[in-house]
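Much of what follows relies on a compact textual record of a protein's fold. A record is reproduced here so that you can trace the correspondence yourselves:
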Amino acid sequence: MRIGTFVDGLTLDELLAFATKAEADGFDSLWVPQIFGLDALAALTLVGHSVPRLELGTAVVPTYPRHPSALAASALTASAASGGRLTLGIGLSHQIVIEGMFGYSYDKPVRHMREYLEALVPLLSLEPADFTGETLSAKLELSVPGAKPVPLLVAALGPKMLELAAERTSGTVTWMTGPQTLAEHTVPTLTKAAEAAGTGDMRVVSALPVAVTDDEAGLRVRAAKVFQVYGFLPSYRAMLDREGASGPEDVALIGSAAKVRAGIERMRDAGVTDFVAVEFHTDEPVATATRELLKELL
């Protein structure tokens, strides 16, 4: 199992410094979200041009605000800047964001993703797109000098989205999904669908908060506050319920080095191919202890 790290909320200079340190520490990958801050692909274009080894990934870019051709052009540009080290993770986001903030319809999200992929997949493969659907059309090709085909992952939690990910992409990327749910739901559903579609082995990239600490109880209280929104968003709530977790703090990997190591190993045993650590800390000793454990696992 490969080990990556996740970062959000930094300036561009801080992101470059973080990526440089992650590469020096031996991490396999660096993942950046597209939320309400830096443009993830623009930021990774800069990182990819400056940091020579790390795989760079988005976890994830919402589909609705951008036409597939615009997203593909950004991804191919980041690919060109990084020598082909970009993996594009995309997702539906959430109804409260898409309708309440962006003003788009969230009707039939699986249909939306299926049509989006019909346009996006060929463009990421450096092939022309020729698709007309109910919600979007794409009849064009892109030419980005130096770009290589970009692997694609879909943030898939429910069965229909997992089946779609298996049929059309390289796999899935998950957040706030625990090892029991991965082992009993996510990985088997994805694998079965890939076997039926003949698409081969699937990649399962899974992220969770991680902290090595002597104050497990105190840091779990802190995690409950920091990550509380994920306990209310329906798609993540469904995964927490499958896991038997009362909230995000229950799936976070928090505690002694031995306990956190065992938690990461459970993710591997569940079928995760890439574990992404969201390094969660409140002080320097926790940050140092967490990073040291992760380095031991690389």
Notes: Residues 179-197 form the longest helix (19 residues). The mean pLDDT is 97. The chain has eleven helices and twelve strands.
